[in-house]
Design brief:
Elements (H helix, E strand, L loop, with lengths): L6 E6 L7 H8 L7 H5 L4 H22 L8 E3 L5 E3 L11 E7 L2 E7 L3 E8 L8 H6 L7 H8 L4 H22 L10 E6 L2 E7 L2 E3 L2 E9 L2 E8 L6 H4 L25 E3 L1 H17 L1
Parallel strand pairs: 1-12
Antiparallel strand pairs: 1-5, 2-3, 4-5, 6-11, 7-8, 8-9, 10-11
Helix pairs in contact: 3-8, 5-6
């Protein structure tokens, strides 16, 4: 279900293998200034992920606000948080979105009021080291409790899954906050009951300003969603929001808004269809 400015979309790129001409055709749907952010990648898979990520952003904004692709202006804060520049909507005062990719999937999530962060993970097994050796490289980013839960899992597969899920929650939080790579992930401690009823402790104190969800895309891919009160955004990102303080306005409480539930699977052709139809309409007129 989708409501208002809330969206949850994913694209499976594993079977999408466009020819060079087809790739250029899809790329042409986007404004020219976006092209270098995609073509700078050398590997084909990286280019595919970059292109689909941008297509998701533009297609989502177009669906929510009806803005033609060529008139959509997406800027970034100094920390790298993307935001929509050219709309101010009282219905969606803090419209924001977060894109992510890993493995076979590229996804996007949006919210009209509260902050949103998305992180997709592929539960892939490292090829040159064991799962436990791989996990140990990141021990400094977890609290003692988190590390205990990871390393005391029943087997290495379970340990790897616990590691990825916890890591993904941390990444989703940071992306929602808009802080960029400078935020110390070890400051965050996630507590949960079998990965439900997830709460976050920041510097040892539980925060009531956040809500978290984990979604299983398939047996190898998961998505983490972080939803935060807009007052928690870093200043550069907060300055792009219309409404950060909701005290005394319960009808605007971001956590009373309906959840979007699971993700809707989109195809690349679905993402570009509207833009192509608009171009054909202009040519015909």
């Amino acid at each position: 279900m989708e409501d208002g400015g809330v969206r949850r979309w994913v694209v499976d790129i594993s079977k999408w293998n466009p020819s060079e001409d087809e790739f250029c055709s899809y790329l042409s749907v986007l404004p020219p200034h976006e092209h270098p952010t995609i073509t700078r990648f050398i590997k084909c898979e990286d280019r595919k992920r970059a292109l689909v990520s941008r297509l998701l952003q533009y297609s989502l904004v177009h669906e929510v606000f009806g803005i033609p692709f060529e008139r959509i202006i997406i800027n970034r804060t100094i920390e790298g948080k993307p935001y929509l520049q050219n709309t101010k909507s009282l219905a969606f005062p803090n419209f924001n979105f977060s894109a992510s990719h890993h493995g076979d999937y590229v996804g996007i999530a949006s919210e009209p009021v509260c902050l949103v962060g998305l992180d997709i993970i592929s539960n892939s097994i490292p090829t040159q080291e064991t799962a436990l050796e791989f996990i140990n490289n990141f021990s400094s980013y977890f609290t003692a409790l988190e590390w205990k839960n990871i390393t005391e899992a029943e087997n290495s597969d379970e340990a790897l899954a616990a590691f990825y899920r916890c890591w993904s929650l941390k990444e989703a939080f940071v992306k929602a906050l808009g802080t960029g790579l400078g935020y110390g992930l070890q400051r965050l401690e996630f507590r949960h009951t079998n990965w439900t009823d997830i709460s976050v402790y920041i510097d040892g104190e539980e925060s009531r300003d956040w809500r978290f969800s984990l979604f299983e895309i398939n047996d190898r891919h998961w998505a983490s969603i972080a939803q935060g009160h807009p007052k928690t955004a870093v200043q550069s990102f907060r300055s792009t929001l219309l409404k950060a303080d909701f005290e005394g306005e319960h009808h605007l409480d971001p956590f009373l808004l309906p959840d979007a539930g699971g993700f809707i699977l989109q195809s690349v052709d679905q993402l570009v269809a509207v833009s192509k139809q608009e171009k054909l309409g202009r040519l015909a007129s």
